Amino acid sequence: MGTFAHGLDFVSDYGTIVNKIGGKYFAKDSQNNIIVSSDTPDIVIKTALNRGGEIFIAGGKYDLSSNFSGFDLKSYTHLKLAQDADIAVPSGYSGHVFRFNGGTTHCVMEGGRIHEANPVERSWIGILMQGGRGIYFNFIENMIITDPYIVIDFNATTGQWINANTFVNIQGETFVRGIEFDFSGNYTRADGFYGNTFRDSQFQSGPMTAYGVKDIQRAYTAFYNVQVWDLPPSAISASIDPSAEHTIIIGGMMTYRNFVDNGRNTIVLDAFHNNLLSNLTLSSAIIKGTYQPEVNIPTPSLPRGLNMSIPQQPKTGFVKGDQAQLIITSGHPAELNVYGTVSSPKGGTVILYIIRPDGVVEQNQAYVTSTGAFQYPMSFDRNSLTGQYRIDVLYQNSNLGSLFLNVTSGQIPQQNETYAHSNISIPQPSKSNTTFSTSIKNDAKLWSQGKIGDDIFGDSIQYLVKYGIIENPNRSQAPSYQSTHIPTWFKNNAGLWVDGQISDGDFISGLQYLLNMGILQLPSQQNNSSK
C-alpha cells in the first residue's frame, strides 16, 4: 500500500473485513473466510489490526467490553470505518481508543464514530499519538469523537518525537480538552512535536470544556480552519507553550476566548486575533476583519484625563463597562465585564475590537439576547500586557461606543462604572511623586501588621490631605474618623508600599479610592501636622 492510499472502490478490496451479524462479530479475509469470531468486538478488531494492511469495519454498533484496553495500529495500515460504524467504549473507561505508538508510520485511519456508553464520565482519550522511536507520516480524517477527556493527545518524553502527522475533518464533541500536547522530561535537539497539521476540524465544547487546544509545543504546528465552538467563559481557546516556535493558526476560531501565546514567531491570521501588522491601511483592515467599504463610522475623541469613557451615545444603543482601571497582582487576576444593550435587537452578536497596548487587535463577539442585552467578560493576569486598551463595540454595522481601559500592575482592581452621558473617573493624586516622611511609612508598616489601630494611621492620612497629596471628597462634612470596613488588599498594599514593591502613586490611588467611595472618612480638624 502506498502512503495515504485510501479510498478503495469496493469492500472486497480490503484484506480484512470486520462486521456484525446477529449478535456476533466476525473478521473475514477478502475471500470471505472467517479469521476470527467473538461475542465481543474487542478481540475481532484487535485481530484485524494485528494483521495490518487494508482493514474495513462495516456499519453497526460495536459495544466494547469492560476488559477493553485500547487498539494499536501497525505501520502501513489503512483502517477505514464505515461512517455508521459506531464504537462505544464502556462507561468509566480511562485509556485510549486508537493509539499510534513507537515507530508507527504511513498509516491512514478514516471514518466512524467513537463515544462513551452511559453514564458518561469522560476519562478516556480518542486518538493517542505516543512517542517512542517516532510517529510520522500518518493521516487521520473524517472521524467523530464524542464525550472524551481528550479528543487527540500528543504524548512524548525525552528522546521521543511525533512529526508530520495530519488530521482532517475531525469532529470532537463535549470534551474536556480538544487537542493536547504533553511532553515530559528535557528537550534535546530533535525530540518533541514537529510539523503536525490540523485542517477543517470542528470541536463543539460543553460546560465541562477547559481547553480547545492545550500547550502547543515545539515547532511548525499548523492549524487551518480549526473551529472551537461555544467555550465556557473560563475556558481557553488555545495556549501556546514557551517551547513552541513557528506555530501557524490561519482561519477558524482558536483565539477568541482567553488565547495565550507564549511561543516564538507565531503566525496568527483569523477573525479574532492577528499579529500580522501592515502599514497598508486597507490590507490591515481586511486581515483584521474590520474592512467596511460602505460604512463610515467616525472615531470619537477621548478626553485625556479619563480612564474610561463613552464620548457619545449612538441612537442604536450604548455600552457600559463596570471598571475603568484595573490593577493586577501576581496572585489575583482582575476581571472586567463589558456589557450593554442595543435598540431594535435582531439577534446575532456584537463585535468587540480590542486594541491592546502593543497595537495588536483582537476581535471577539458576544451574543445579543431577545431584550437587546449583551455582556462580554475579560480577564487580566500577571501575563497580561499593561497599558491602555481600547474596546470598540459594533452591532449591525453601527458603532455602540468605545471604552478605554488602563491596566497597571501591583494592586487589586479599583471599582468604577462609566455610563453613556456620564464621564466618571477616579481622580489621580495631585502629587504622586511626593517624598514621604519616615514616620508616615513607619505608621503604614505598623498598621499593615496590625500593631497600631486605624485611628492612629488616620492621623497620617489627615497629613496627606492637609498638604494636598490626596483630596478629601467630604470636605464639607465633619464626621468623626471612621472606617466602615477597610479591605484586606489595602492593608497588604501598605506593607508592599513600605517595602518598595509598589509605587507611591499606586498606594495613593488605593487610598484615594477608599476616600471617594466613603469607605474611609476624615474629620474636619487636621492635627499631627508635624509628621
Determine the number of helices (DSSP H or I, runs of at least 4 residues). 6
Radius of gyration: 30 Å
Regions with little confidence, pLDDT below 50 for 5+ residues: 1-5, 277-286, 291-318, 411-435, 475-484, 524-531
Distance between the termini: 89 Å
Largest sheet: 15 strands, mixed
Coarse structural class: mainly beta
Number of strands: 37
Give the percentage of residues in beta strands: 35-45%
**Shape call:** elongated
Fraction of residues in helix: 10-25%
Mean pLDDT: 77
Entry summary:
The chain has 531 residues and is mainly beta. It is 13% helix and 37% strand.
Give your account of this protein's structure.
The protein is mainly beta and 531 residues long. Among the domains are: 83-276; 317-409, Macroglobulin (MG2) domain (Immunoglobulin-like, Sandwich); 438-521, no CATH class. It contains six helices and 37 strands. The strands form six sheets. It has a 15-stranded mixed sheet that branches. An eight-stranded parallel sheet has the order 6-9-12-15-18-21-23-25. It is elongated. 37% of the residues are buried. Mean pLDDT is 77; it is low at 1-5, 277-286, 291-318, 411-435, 475-484 and 524-531.
